[in-house]
Amino acid sequence: MTAHLLRSGLLTFALLLLTACTLDVGRSSPSTSAADDHSSSWAVTLQRQSSIAGSGLREIAESDLRSGDLLFSSSLGVTSLGIRAFSASSVSHVALYVGEGQVAEATGAGVQVITLQQALAHSDKLFALRVPDLTPDQATAMKSFAWQVK
């Protein structure tokens, strides 16, 4: 394997880790002659899906937060910047407000519950949206689940 192919493979792997997007590689493996031809490239399609547009979500103020509200955020860290760059999004993380100033979020180690102030402190942007048809029972179930898997 040439150094060029190794670098291409490592870059592709890094992109997958950073973006969590699906990859559609147009050519499953390069030919021997293509390995030395730096002008030929692999066809890569990054797919971005969003359920936000047209979903009826509405932005809410901090003082109006209720259990079940979604907190969208970003930070200045490398992972956040990579996710935003490759997803064309202004946010890189979503957490769940579970009430009483507490936020549940997924991490590499599982789910952690932190204070809203901690979430604000490590975010350069944070906004909250509410799903309009979320029932109190659904919000309670979400909160209970977050505390169980914590």
Q: How would you classify the quaternary structure?
A: single chain
How many strand elements? Answer: 8
Main beta-sheet annotation: 6 strands, antiparallel
The secondary-structure class comes to alpha+beta
Biggest β-sheet: strands ordered side by side in the sheet: 3-8-4-5-6-7
Following the backbone from N to C, one meets helices and strands in this order, namely HEHEEEHEEEHEH
**CATH top level label of the largest domain:** Alpha Beta
Count of structural domains:
2
CATH superfamily of the largest domain: endopeptidase domain like (from Nostoc punctiforme)
- CATH architecture descriptor of the largest domain: Alpha-Beta Complex
The portion of residues assigned to helices is 25-40%
Fold and architecture overview:
This protein has 2 domains: 44 residues, no CATH class; 92 residues, endopeptidase fold (from Nostoc punctiforme) (Alpha-Beta Complex), CATH 3.90.1720.10. 34% of the residues lie in helices and 26% in strands. It is built from 5 helices and 8 strands. Strands 3-8-4-5-6-7 form a 6-stranded antiparallel sheet. The longest helix is centred in the first third of the chain and has 17 residues. About 25% of the residues have low confidence.
List the helices and strands and how they pair.
Blueprint (H helix, E strand, L loop, with lengths): L2 H17 L3 E3 L6 H4 L8 E3 L11 E3 L9 E5 L3 H10 L5 E7 L2 E6 L2 E6 H6 L3 E6 L5 H14 L1
Antiparallel strand pairs: 1-2, 3-8, 4-5, 4-8, 5-6, 6-7
